[in-house]
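Let us practice reading a record.
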Amino acid sequence: MPARIAVITDSSSCLPDLVAARWAIGVVQIQMSLGNQYDDENRFDRGEVIDAMRAGHVITTAPPDPGAFFWTYQEAAASGATAIVSIHISGRMSDTVRAAREAAQQVRIPVHVLDSRTTGMSLGFAVVSAARAAAAGADATRVIEAAERRCTTSTEFIYVDTLEYLRRGGRIGAAQAMLGSAFSIKPLLTVKDGEVAPLARIPGTRRALAKMVDLAVKKSGGFRADIAVTRFGASDHELEIGRQIERRVPAMVESMVVEASTVIGAHLGPGALGITVSPVG
């Protein structure tokens, strides 16, 4: 009997539910705490979280319990999987990978846990590539290769109104150097070496967003690429950004506008926007 590889990720991948269901991807929820509620991040109302952040309430996040991974892996095995490829948010941003590896030791089928060294739709596109390879009958080695190729070639461009939320959550990384900029200067960030890193300081929101689009178009370089625009809370910008990219990237394979996971949004802050450029092939 040929091997059937199950693909698992965590909720920081920002995968829309329909995409995860289409490719039979298991998604383990990262945990969040707000007030008296401590639960899976998808159980929080996004609008209420944004309102709470603007009101200055403390929000904390935590990796999934190893037990959540264990039961997800057990379910995959019970459904006929002979091996699992489990791909997760950078270990420099979260202990999610550690929890997954702890659970993997308790499962009777092989579980290959990958640290993506990224997050968001860079992780999401990698997970989908892995699931496509698995659906086509690839063995675990080729499924892992498909994921790693996308992880290492994808790029995140991130706009935030302020670095304060990253600072509060301890996820600011090398972007620490940008703290103290004038209020009108908007930071553009990326993910480098598994953590948030500074990219540019731009005066004003519209200029910053225009620069982010320019960077994404340049990164696509005329190559075939999947592109995602990620938002945390609706704004007037994400659809226009999507239209600009469609006009300026003729080799784009797939484009989508997605909601940032609530946990990612809790660290980036209301109004955060991102563009993921993920080369295909």
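A brief commentary: Confidence is low (pLDDT under 50) at residues 174-182.
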